[in-house]
Write a structure and sequence with these properties.
Strands 1-2 form a two-stranded antiparallel sheet. Helix 2 packs across helix 4. Strand 1 and strand 2 form a beta hairpin. It has 6 helices and 2 strands; from the N terminus they run ααααββαα. It is 58% helix and 6% strand. It is mainly α and 168 residues long.
């Protein structure tokens, strides 16, 4: 495996990297590996930041998703939005409910439907989590100049915007 590039620069998109010219299978494979390593590093840093708050990244994601709805969502809505099986949502809601961050509430229109509401404790947790997430991003982005961050943001937007939406 090649040694990581520790120069901190993004490099020139037109110059060949150690694995071949841009767009070649070797270069694309190296880019994929670098993105994967960066994602893992970000996950480790974020997990470390979340540990004192006593919440997992998956619980954080669910809490953020619940808060994004105008009205309390159903479990099925959450599963669809998160692209997970409903059982996974149940487990996450159980943990968040036990910590007082969400509560199950009956649907006023259907006795069979349960809605998930965020509590004041959940909102306070989200504020703490957003600060932890910013700190993790700052740690990851520290080697980059403001101009490099802007370019990276544009590149990531192009990748995200270019991805087809997943439909269940």
């Amino acid at each position: 495996m090649d040694a990581p590039d520790c120069s901190g620069s993004l490099g020139s998109p037109s110059s060949p990297g150690p694995s071949g010219p841009p767009g070649s299978p070797d270069a694309d494979g190296m880019l994929a590996e670098q993105l994967l390593r960066l994602t893992r590093r970000l996950h480790r840093i974020q997990s470390r930041q979340l540990e004192p708050i006593d919440i997992t990244p998956a619980q954080f994601r669910l809490l953020r998703t619940v808060a994004s709805y105008d009205a309390a969502p159903r479990m099925a809505d959450l599963a669809r939005r998160l692209d997970v099986v409903p059982r996974a949502v149940t487990t996450l809601v159980d943990a968040l409910e036990a910590s007082g961050r969400v509560r199950r509430a009956p649907d006023p229109d259907s006795r069979r439907v349960v809605r998930i509401e965020i509590t004041d404790e959940g909102r306070a947790t989200l504020r703490s989590l957003r600060s932890a997430r910013r700190a993790a991003a700052e740690e990851i982005l520290a080697p980059l100049s403001a101009d490099q961050r802007e370019v990276l943001g544009e590149l990531l937007s192009a990748l995200v915007d270019g991805m087809p939406e997943r439909r269940c």
